[in-house]
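Collaboration report, partner site 2.

Our partner group contributed sequences for two proteins of shared interest, and the home lab folded both. The records are reproduced in the order in which they were received, starting with the first partner submission.
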Amino acid sequence: MNYDLSETTALLSRTPAGLNSLLRDLPVAWTHSNEGPETWTAFDIVGHLLHAEHTDWIPRATMILQHGEERTFKPFDREGQNKESQGKQLPQLLDEFAVARAQSLSQLHAMNLSPSDLHRRGRHPNFGPVTLGQLLATWAVHDLTHLHQLSRLMAYQYREAVGPWSVFLGVLQCQGHSGVA
C-alpha cells in the first residue's frame, strides 16, 4: 500500500470511536489491569494517545511546515499520560481524546497539504531528518500499535481462564513489538 493522506485520515478518524466502543462502561478489571510490572493498562493507553494528540502529531507537522529542519522536535514524553491523566476517569479520557482527535484532523485538513508538502523535512531528536509524510504515516501506525497492545493486554487477563485453547490464540503468544525510540 502506498502512502495516501486521505487513507491515513480515514483510519485516524476511527480510532476514538473504536476505543469508545471497546472500552466505555467496561468493568475496571478490564480497563485498569496490565500485563505485569512496567506495562500499561487500557486507561494508560488512552491517556498516552491523548497526550500524543496534544504534544506530538500536529505540533510536529506544524514545525515541519514552518521551520523545516532548522528546529529539532521536542523529545516526546512516552509516559506523559501519567501527569495528564491524574484524577480523571476513563470516560473523561475517551471524551477528551475524541475531541482532541477531531481538532487535530481539522487542523490537518486546514493545512491543505499538497503531495509535495509530504516530502518536506523536519528534524527528529533521535532519527535526524524525517518527512512530513513519514510523520503522518507514523501517526496512523502508532494508533494501530496501541490498538494491538490493547487487544493483547485485555486477552492477557484471560490467559489462564482459556485453558488449553491458549495454544490457538495468537494474541496470548504475542510478546509486544514496540521498542524504545
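Second partner submission, folded after the first:
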Amino acid sequence: MGTVPLPPELGLDTNLTAVGFRLNRDTRPNRFYPTDGTFLDFTADFFSPDLGSKYSFQSYKFTFNKYWSLTQNQVLASGSFACFTGGEPPFYGNCVYGTDSQLRGYPAGRYLDRYMLGTQLEYRLALPKRFGLVGFGGLEK
C-alpha cells in the first residue's frame, strides 16, 4: 500500500530569503538576570522572489524592555513589543503570539496575525538558595 502524495502548493518546501537591518541597544548590566537598564531591538526584513524567496512580504518587529531594582532582591520589569507584516506572507511569516518571551504563559503559535501589539509587567523576587518568585501579567492586541 503506497502513501498519498502531498498537494504541490501545500507550502512545505519553501525558501525565504530577505534583506534587512537591525537596530539594537542594550544597557542591561546582565542579560541573563537584568536588574537595571533597558533593551531595545528593531528589525525590518524584506522578502522578495528577486532574492530567491518564494514569497514577497515585509516583516517589522520592535521590542523595548525596562528594568528597575526595587531592593537588592526585587526587580520590576516591563516590556512592550509590536510586530507588523505587509505584502503576502505565508501563514508562518505572520506575527506569532507567545514567542520570543513575549506574553509569558501564552501558548506560542495558537494565534497568528498581520499585526501584534503587546505589553507586559513582571515582578521578580530572589529567594535564598537560588529560588525565586515571579508574578507577571500582560495585554495584547
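Feedback sent to the partner group on the second submission included the following. The first strand starts at residue 18 and ends at 26. The chain has no helices and eight strands.
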